[in-house]
Amino acid sequence: MQPPRGPSSSVTDNAARQAALLGAFGRHFGSPTANSRRVRIIRAPGRVNLIGEHTDYNDGFVFPMAIEPQALIACRSRDDGLVRLASTAFEGPLVEFSVQRRIESGEPGWANYSRGVAQQLVSAGIPLCGMDAVIDSSVPVGGGLSSSAAIEVATGLALLTLAGLDMDPQRLALVCQQAEHFFAGVPCGIMDQTIVAAGRAGHAMLLDCRDLSKQYIPVDGRELQVVIINSMVRHALTGGEYAERREQCNAGVRHFNQGNPGVTTLRDVSLETLRAAEDVLPAVVYRRCRHVVTEIARTTRAAALLLQNDYDELGRLMLQSHESLRGDFEVSTPELDLLVAEAMTVRGVYGARMTGAGFGGCVIAVVQPRAVEPLRHHILKVYPEKTGVTPDIYVTTATAGASVLE
């Protein structure tokens, strides 16, 4: 996949993807114009997290923004309750299930994100109709940019749109989170689905994962560009490492709760309280907790710095976040560490860090606009030389959350 090089190329690419998507719809379900029912196109963006990793399920703060890579669904309603799905990324027969019966997870696995959302909506008493749909996505799978959340939110919005229904974006995000828990087996926090459903163009979102309150912080593209570098090392959150770290955080909470019943998550633990327990907590639990407690503080500070246009200090916090994720939370990889180190050798790069749950995926860098091409050139030269792998690079603005295109 070639990275977008600016707004005009992104618009051209999106138009081409929509045309190809409608072509795929026609091949699977007949011409989009051959039926009196309108074919709708739904989009849901991926996301990148500026800072605030593994804080969402600890009731902390996160600071994501919606990005230009996106999931698209072309869909048309049916009266019989049957849902038929195809994907441009996977060959094989159509996936079929009915919203009039209980929906179970199954094969192929890619369809479980859509199955799960449909089942959660049905369980909530939402009256759905059937649909024919083709899914296309430019969000890289396993890159830590929320490809699953994009599919979930797009599916939910497609089903609601065809049924003539509206839903508050935050409620839709919660529905999609439950789908990921029960159908994909990933105990994710609420960040991904929230920013995908409720992002605002030109803004990052400071999200309080305890009460779901939001503050939108402007990202001025004339002063600051966001560059995402995909290490091409894929991560799978169902592999156990993610759940293991959640449990280690929970172990810390259980310790502090014994002395203070008001502690229900690591959000309630101060750094001073944590440091006082260093000798009694298991070393690995202490390090996991230290990352979360300090990362929550870094995240709220980063939002304030972005609001003040203090990009130098924001960059320093991002580097501190990466070091904490590497050392205390142990979710980085040699490839991610290499990308961060090499990015920081380019003049005009304020800061860089791994983004997403870790174990592979992407690095995010915040840079001066003039530094975008030097950074791209340097990474495309050095990273293949040292790893034998060519990375994907995306330059993105902050986009809006999920929407109906037509």
From TrEMBL:
- Family listed: Belongs to the GHMP kinase family. GalK subfamily.
Could you tell me which species this protein originates from?
Answer: Humisphaera borealis
* Active site, UniProt feature: 192 (proton acceptor)
Q: What is this protein called?
A: Galactokinase
UniProt-listed Enzyme Commission number(s): 2.7.1.6
Enzyme class (EC, first level): transferase
- Please list the residue ranges annotated as the Galactokinase N-terminal domain: 25-76
Gene3D superfamilies, per database record: 3.30.230.10, GHMP kinase, C-terminal domain (3.30.70.890)
The answer to whether keyword Cell division applies is: no
- What reaction does this enzyme carry out catalytically? alpha-D-galactose + ATP = alpha-D-galactose 1-phosphate + ADP + H(+)
Q: Name one Pfam family in it.
A: GHMP_kinases_N
Q: Where is the GHMP kinase N-terminal domain?
A: 113-199
Q: Which residues bind substrate?
A: 53-56, 242
Q: Where in the cell is it found?
A: Cytoplasm
